[in-house]
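seq:
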Amino acid sequence: MKRTSHKTPEVYINDINVFPNSVVPVPTAVPAFIGYTPQASYEGESYLNKPTKITSMAEFEAIFCYPNPSPPSDPAKQYSPQYHLVKQGSKPEMGAYVLLGSDYYAIVPDPNTIYYLYNSVQLFYRNGGGDAYIVAVGSYGTASGRPIAPGDPLINPNVQLADLLAGLELLKNEDEPTMYICPEATLLSIDSNATLMQEMLLQNSEMMTAVSIFDIIGGKDPDPILYSDDIETFRENTGMNGLKFGTAYYPFIGTTTLKSTDLDYTNLFGGDIKQLAAVINPDSDPTSQLTTILSNIENPALTPLTVSQNNKLLIAGSTAYKTIFNKVLEVANVLPPSGAMAGVISSIDNQMGPWKAPANTSIAGAVSLPIKLSENQQASLNADAVTGKSVNAIRHFNGQGILIWGARTLDGNSLDWQYLSVRRTVTYIEQTCKLATSAYIFEPNTKNTWESVKSMISSFLVMTWKEGGLMGKTPEDSFTVECGIGSTMTAQDILDGLMKVTIKIAVVRPAEFFILTFVQQMPKGG
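struct:
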């Protein structure tokens, strides 16, 4: 018998646990963004290639963005894409352009200056995002000073497959992220993009903690006739492994993420004022007011105006420049949808839970689409007879605006895993139960422990059922939990130190197709 440690006469109280260990649900919407940031340091510490958890856009800016100079200087530019105007002989059949007088100019980027992560994180928080991980694999590379040819694929040589794969590898040590996002993946070559996507799906299937949200090369400026070629290429390049852990959205979205104060004349022609002047103030037809503004920019006074002040003067003084500026701002604001989708998923999870399909809802900040898909066009995206890989459409509906109109994984042929909400709900239950049962490691492998584990998991599943995450009129209809010798374990399992638990759940599936039956009833005589 254990001897008492009480030394003096007194009334003593012992607390005894009468409730089983409780289950703490794991987070369900924590994206990990892998890509390039303006910088990656804070208070002298480098955050390069270091998965870093943030909780707000302000925290992202503090660690991964340039510090702002003191007033009256303009705020630091966190993203500075470069665009060129290339004169065309006729109206371009594809791509962005402006008409100045009788001349057409294609607007094409310097590919070395195009990045997406910064704006994707902004879209994430604008759409209800919360906790997130940032894996900064590098800062922005140098500009080439040359535009791509109109119609050529947009590939940024500064975006390296090896960098993104190294960032992905770092996430193997992080269990909390539930979504993987590489906003700059579409800036890789088609082959490199295929390698990255397949590695992401492989890691998802091995860790079983996260899904990957993919963007599609060609979704930024799709051909209205041949866009399906881009979809086919994407399907071919995702491979055949881990499809239930992937989902894709098409096309890109036109947003209001970049404001008019985020761009200026330094984003045109690499900041070469002479090239800009040749377009908006040609020698054949100059204006004195515009000549003065441009001259003051090239040869500033002792107390020069700021770039933003000069830009306002250009907009007010030149209709041509205003047209160019507005069109460039529109082009720069066409972004991959993955960051916005992570925000939408986070918002829905917080309101309902992962079992609510992230579809039939709008995207905050989305104002246009580069292609408006019809119902017939979406049909080939939603289901593919050859590969079975589903692509979720983002569509425009009259009177409703832009809506997410799909909720499927890449595993479109699987009755078990074709829906994203099903995959994420099962992951949520799996990881929550895994975390909860870790408290029983090294406990006696006996009936008392088995019953305690069953009770704990059942309590969690009842709560999930009450919140709408499981089907069934009663908890008994929605799940079963089994643990014990003769049901889930053998005597050899006990000797081997194995405790096996079998959980069967009836997961909620979205109603994709509503069938309305109308029958004309004959009038009844009275």
